Amino acid sequence: MIALKDIHFRYKKNKPLFENLNLTLEPCFIYGLLGKNGAGKSSLLKHISGLLYPDSGQCTVFGFDAPARKPAMLEDIYMIPEEFNLPAISLSNYVKTNGVFYSKFSFNQLQAYLAEFELDENAKLSTLSYGQKKKFLIAFGLATNARLLILDEPTNGLDIPSKSQFRKIMAASLDEEKIIIVSTHQVRDLENLIDNVVVLEKGHIVFNRNMGEISEKLAFEYNLAGVPAEEILYAEDMHGRKAGIVKNIAGHDARVDLELLFNGIVKNAAGINEHFANYKYEY
Amino acid sequence: MNTELNFKRLGFFLKRQLYLNFSSMWIAIGAILGLLLIISALFAYFNDNPDIVLNLRNLYLVVYMLGGYIFTSKVFDEMHAPQKSYMFLTLPVSAAEKLLAAWFITSPVYVVVAGLVMVLLSFISASLAGNVEAFPYLFDETFFNCVGVYMVTQAVFFLGATTFRSNNFLKTVLALIVVALLIAAYTGLLGYILFGNSGMRFEEGKANEFEKTAEFVTNTVIPFLFWFVFAPFLLLVSYFKLKERQV
Predict the structure, then answer these.
(1) Which domain holds residue A60?
(2) B92 shares contact with chain A (CB less than 8 Å)
(3) ipTM score here?
(4) What region holds the ABC transporter domain (chain A) (predicted)?
(5) Which end of chain A has fewer CB atoms surrounding its CB within 10 Å, N or C?
(6) Which of A52, A85, A93 sits opposite B246 (nearest CB)?
């Protein structure tokens, strides 16, 4: 489990980024971390992986204090940042020199992932495109069998077939011990992949719900004509019509439109959260 | 594999660091060796001075120490590169192991490799100068004293490598100059406050006591601090710098 308690953090000479931030992430889920530019997504991921230290508060990962960066904790964390620079060596040599640090590293799994992503393990990393390097890092990260996988903008640079391969591989790799955090602007890439939506806005967690809960309580309409105003939680113009988020009165599971949901939360987080709070379960 | 210092993991990390920097290290060694060979050949061929081999040895010692300081300053480059630092810092290796591996490469390994290069260069230059019998005398007390001084003083550049994010070598040199100026200003001011501009005066029979104290400080305390305390202290500070390092 990952627990951030009362985190306060500011970059030097800047105004505070996190004030009293609290977040708990449980195993067996894929979390989609959404937020606008500068909302603090990357900083939050860096706190979880021990790359940034909070000014106050506590960040624990599987019981370890994250800033201590103990090898036992780091063996269970693999982070793929948005921007990276890999050494000019072959994939196989990279694996030989770095895989040894992860006690659960599986060469067989790696080969299977590389085959899935159509990557040659004898190729030199310097000859690969950005998207191919990203696919290699995803394959390597999964093969470490770390319990926490952090992916910052993982689908940036991936072509369309690779994006669906990525979704397929990520969904298949999840087990009851793993936590996967995917931070992205490209919310459509996460559809049918994530279990929980966490939205960060100006350093605060403004929304943290399970997809099942969301689809049960919210409905996403692409034409709001005829929908009573009191049922509309958020509306926006879409191709000359009004689209938006409405209360799911019927309670039937609705398909979640992550882009609409994100826009709605950014504009009306209080209203949407209030709807969840007021929701009465019917047994 | 879960303790702060695990020798198996340290070995893996050493191997990783040597492997990742292998090509640039060989390029640097090759370039310096080539340059020194050319200089040695020219000096040995065109100079009749019988001390030329010894003078060349002194040049090698200067290059050896400067090269070591620059190499040490660059040992944590991966940690300071914005797009590589995450990988270095999240690698399951403790700060103590990262410190030990970096020190091992820049101190004992460098001393041995650069020492072998110097033996080779000295032999070639002695042969070119037609003075092969001078070769064994090149590795005298001065040579080994220089090696010892390097192993102590490189800790300063090691601390600079953990502290500064770019231009580590130049910033460390600048920091050394600033510290030297501050110490000179402090001692000068202290001397002026204690003795004014009238010179030192001691009471009858006390001068000998002061002389002995000064002798003890300069002959025993300062050498002890330099040879046994200075480098471990700087390495300890470097350890904390590594531990506290954020992206």
Answers:
(1) 2-202
(2) yes
(3) 0.89
(4) 2-227
(5) C
(6) A52
